[in-house]
Design brief:
This protein is mainly beta. Strands 24, 25, 26, 27, 28, 29, 30, 31, 32 and 33 form a 10-stranded antiparallel sheet that branches. Strands 6, 7, 8, 9, 10, 13 and 14 form a 7-stranded antiparallel sheet that branches. Strands 16, 18, 19, 21, 22 and 23 form a 6-stranded mixed sheet that branches. It is extended. The two termini are 59 Å apart.
Length: 759
Amino acid sequence: MCKKSFVRASRVADFRSVARHPERPPSVIPASRVLWLVAFALGWMMIGFGGTAIGQVAGVDDPSDMADSSGDIKRIEAWVEDGKLNLTMTVHGVFAPSVAQTPAGMTNRYYYHWILDTDNDPATGYYNAEYEGNATGVKTPIGVDVVVQFGWRDGHTNGVYAYIALTEEALVEDYEYAIDGDTIHAIIPLADLGLTPDDIIALSAFQEGASNGWQIDWLESVVMPLTVVKATNPIPATGSDDIPRDVILGWKPGASAARHNVYFGTDWADVNDASVPTAQDLDVNSFDPGRLDFGQTYYWRVDEVNSAPDFTVFKGDVWNFTTEPFAYPSANIIVTTNAISEATQSIENILNGSGLDEADQHSTKSTDMWLGSAAGADPIWIQFEFDRVYKLHELWVWNYNVEFELVLGFGIKEVTIEYSADGVDWMSLGDMELTQATANSSYTHNTTVNFAGVAAKYVRLTVNGGWGAMAQYGLSEVRFYYIPAFAREPQPANGATEVAVEPALSWRAGREAVSHNVYLGTDPEALAPAATTQAASYAPDDLLFGNVYYWRVDEVNEAASPATWEGNLWSFTTQEYATIDDIEGYADDIDTGQAVFQTWIDGWTNNTGSTTGYAESPFAEKAIVHGGRQSMPVSYDNTSAPFYSEILRTWDSPQDWTGHSANTLVLHFYGPEDNAAETLYVAVEDSAGHVAVVAHPDPEALRVAAWQSWTVPYSELAGVNMARVETMYIGVGNRATPTAGGSGLLFIDDIGYGAPLAE
């Protein structure tokens, strides 16, 4: 009997205690428990394919236990490298013997199998007994899902493939392998086996053939995680740019890492080849490289180190990131002029990047530039308006660059530069000379104006003269750079929704900020001071469910001018409901109490007509879900006494569902159309034993094949202390005056408490 059948039989025949632990064959150890019983061994190793360092090896040894040891399995191993599952099998004697090497009287046929419980679920796949034969102490895997076969007959391979155990559907028609004496090494991409690096498998093996009656030798299994043992998931992500200079590096540790060695520098080869770590034997998966330089690309590597006794070191990949520049190019600039522009040479051309290539070289095409003449006696001016006040760093100028510019002299030469924070009061930066363009297509900017960090929203260039005698003046391109003095990059992001009511607000600090003034409220026109912090973060604790909040951070440095840089206005919306039960935390492991029916008690215990979960694994519903990856199936049968169906959950300690002005209970349900029309109800009981029951207003609701959101105001749960909830009931029928009814199935998901979004 397969495990799946056994589970079904145990539930139907009630081979369960009240705690729902089904009877199990005494010779079988549940796969869930194997995780705690099987020791991970052997650390790391080097393999023959390329001689590169691999990941953690899971392996198990077996003594010679067959009467004829030819082909008797000695050892199996498995590990993951570069997205591929590596399998080895070592035997007594020769793995693939020639006909001459075959023991006398035996046929030259050897069939070897690695067998895998790939879904970590003993209830799916074949029982081990399906493969057992004359086994040698078989224990796991219980639910065999995938078989990797290697056949050898009369000196030739015969059947090198992987297949699904239950259907014998081929997954891999051929795979990479090598034989060396008594050992085979197979390599199969995880994806071809339907696996990912986050999975956990149980691995066994057996050999059949070349013995009397095709005697089978079974090798006990080992449980192994398919986890890459090298450090992964670097923070910041490799290739990232604009990284803060005070960044703290982080990574996901390898599966067996006990310590971490970090290598850090500005040269890829130096970091890749280094043997002396920048930081050694770290016991945390983070590293502070100190304050870094502006605009520098850094390279880093993390080698993972095993624990005693081997202390094996596994070299990591080389990652890289680039730090923030000293200044950023400005955007969202409005440009105006009092000059009369040529029809095909608009003033906007000096800001739109027309004529610039990837190397910032400007073309000689006149329509990529601006050219204008005075409208009267007043001198020509060009004015730039930014979207806010900025701390200006530099202005780059590409002068007028037509092919004959050196003869024509249309480029601007002398200018007066002024700036203003409000457009009313102006300050002079001084008189400047703009270098003439080169009149070729390799022209890059050759004038840099230093603004020295002045605060400005407006900049004006007044033309005092050009490089020729013409009455026209032109420019090719200009670019402003600013120093980020204001707060930016808010978390949660501006406009975010479903934000927790106890959020951790953070932002990227202004370059020179010493402290941060935080303003927060529900009225964007009247934000109240919330806090002054030294860190670029703030955690409010008094937010309400279902509200839109506005916030701003002003950056402060009393020693600078200006001392305060007002931030932009940001917003976020808090979640309407916090989770009571999203049904995501339940699994199919009965022995560890993780099955859904071990938390939500049903008719098996409370003697109503309810059944929580399916009769066989998986116990939760995987396809019909409101959110996440699963929902809770609930069967109801009111055709017999007590004529109502009810499930319940009791908490170990009373639950407070009143925080942050919560006033509503919510649950989501789905009912197939063929359900019998019955009334859905919810009940809540507090620690004092007070109970309130609320029935859904629509008795046909359980027959709507769509997810419905049912909100229950606390006013309908009068008499119950919602700050001390002990038990929640979900039922079908009428628990007060039960009458005979029908049966059906519904799905429950995403139960919560909170408040609807404020109007």
